[in-house]
Amino acid sequence: MRGRRLRFAILLAALFLSWPTRADDGNFSGIAFFRSDVTVRGDATLAVREEIVVRNATSFYKYGFRRDLPITSADRWDSRYVGDYKRDNGIRVDILEVTEDGRPVQYQQGSGYGYPQILIGPQNSPLDSREHRFVVRYRADSVLNLGAARDTLYWNAIGHERNAPVAEAILVIHLPQRIPRDAVEINPRVGGRGVSYPRQPETTLERIDGAADVIAYRGMNVGPRQSLSLALTWPPGFIRKPKFDLVRRDIWMLAAPASLFLFYLVAWFWIGPEPKPGAVVARYDSPDGLSPAAVRYIATGVTDGRSFAAVIVQLSVRGCLRIESAARKYKLSRLMSDRTAESTLAPEEKRVLALLFEDGPVIELSPAMDQRNSAQNSRYVFHIHEELAKQLGAKYFTRHSGIIALGVLATFMTALVLAVTAHGRDASGAVFFTVWILFCGLILGLMIELTFALAWKAAILTRMGWLRLLPGTAAIAVFGGAIAYLLKVLAAGVSFSFALTLALFLVVNLAWGPRLKRKTPLGRQVSDQITGFRQFLQRVEQDQLNRLNPSAQAPSDLDHLVPYAIALELKDAWGDHLSQTFFASTVVAED
């Protein structure tokens, strides 16, 4: 009992000694009292409470009161404890409370180079000469150096970015109880950075004894650009960072992509499963007289360069044009076919025939990846898709595009709110970067899903055309690299959780969008019939198709099944070459 009373008396004495003392001279100007309580938490973060009493400080704070938190590399200059200099040392703070004379007060935290600056109260006017007591509470991440030999805490409490003198400064470190005090090594210091602003004779430094659970030091008459610092080391293993330390800051943001995922999941269950495949029976012709492009559209759900190639071959089979190939280019010549033959063409075939020869009876098509050829070939694919979607879209598919549009809209709105309210070391570009990442990421993801993934798959299967995919793949890699770089910038400027949230927004939208598309019962039935037709082509007609002039020249005896073989991705030497010619240089459109 007596021991408890003695410890209590000692603690009271220590608190009394640490109470803010006024300078003997009533005209003292500057910081009359400064106290920093630093609590080392088990998750390797610091809880910091600073109490600052200023008096007659008008000449030092001509534009309002400013507190520079001691988290910059200039304040953490001692490489023995913090390592080599880094422009961004990774320390982040969350301001929890700011008061003036016991009442909450407005404040602004800087960004970028001024991130450590806390502007408190009215600004752009001198701080009046009366006494002010400011209290700032904040949490600091990435301050501790958890090493293999010993863990280190280096805290330069007052900081050097200050011209006002400090009459009395106290730094108190609260360590977790599990760290044995006899294993802690302490190195206190009062002075300027390195050899700058050396300690003056009137500056004193002493340890405050009496509180067994804390380490406390007092500095008196601390000059401008000088600070009170403590370097503590102890054996490792007592403090460990959480497993998900990177997402600890702003982890609540991850609820946004999680909610988006849940929205799509509920929509997926509400839509219900696609009709199951039925029995497949071999067919000798396309179901319902569907054109080659229509067969591909229903079977795969896409319109692409292979659809375009199938249309060209179909027009050649019907005697509407002649195909000649040379030097990786295709020369198409208009033939004087009779009106009866043209009247039997599918709507997309009529449209492409008119577009091909709108400027003359001869046209040359090239697979080159330059802007002109890509735009030209993509134009043909777009018109094919437009006709197919108009005729077949609602009949064979349910799009649920409204759900996808709502998900994308919610993504942009939520991300913009997070960007506008973002705070961190440098959140100035958060809004622009967010819009750029989401817009380009969604477009890029659609291109990969609808074009290049299919193109590379076809190139691998046919071992053709992969060289033509390299320029486009390189362009995608450049844009992908730009997105990754901007995410890295946001991770450093705002938080890793914010950057991860944007990345997850992209993944969730791109992953769920294609999975909401369903075939109607009729679409499922016709798809089964197309599967039977494909089996017939593959098992019975494959060798004959491959014997149809496997040279680089267009076959003179084109069979009416060749366009379907191209559309259904069956191996056909000439058809594969033609389809691969336009596959990489066209933009795929999906209904």
- Strand fraction: 15-25%
Strands, total number: 22
Measured between the Cα atoms of the first and last residue, the distance is: 82 Å
Note the main sheet. 8 strands, mixed
How many H/I helices?
15
Top-tier CATH class of the largest domain: Mainly Beta
CATH topology of the largest domain: Immunoglobulin-like
Detail the poorly predicted runs. 1-22, 548-558
In the CATH classification, which architecture of the largest domain applies?
Answer: Sandwich
Percent helix, as a range, is 40-55%
Query: What kind of assembly state do the chains in view correspond to?
Result: single chain
Principal-axes geometry comes out as elongated
Main structural class: alpha+beta
Adjacency order of strands in the biggest sheet? 5-4-8-2-1-11-14-13
Question: Which terms would index this structure?
Answer:
single chain, 591 residues, alpha+beta, Immunoglobulin-like, 3 domains, 8-stranded mixed beta sheet, 4-stranded antiparallel beta sheet, 41% helix, disordered N terminus
Question: How is the secondary structure organized here?
Answer:
Blueprint: H1 2-17, E1 30-40, E2 46-55, E3 65-68, H2 79-82, E4 92-100, E5 103-104, E6 107-109, E7 117-120, E8 132-141, E9 145-146, E10 151-156, E11 166-174, E12 185-191, E13 204-207, E14 214-222, E15 227-234, H3 255-271, H4 292-300, E16 302-303, H5 305-317, E17 321-326, E18 329-334, H6 339-343, H7 347-356, E19 362-365, H8 371-396, E20 397-398, H9 401-420, H10 430-462, H11 466-493, H12 496-512, E21 518-519, H13 521-546, H14 562-567, H15 573-583, E22 589-590
Parallel strand pairs: 1-11
Antiparallel strand pairs: 1-2, 2-8, 3-7, 4-5, 4-8, 6-7, 9-10, 10-15, 11-14, 12-15, 13-14, 16-22, 17-18, 18-19, 20-21
Helix pairs in contact: 3-9, 3-12, 4-5, 4-8, 5-7, 5-15, 7-8, 9-10, 9-12, 10-11, 10-12, 11-12
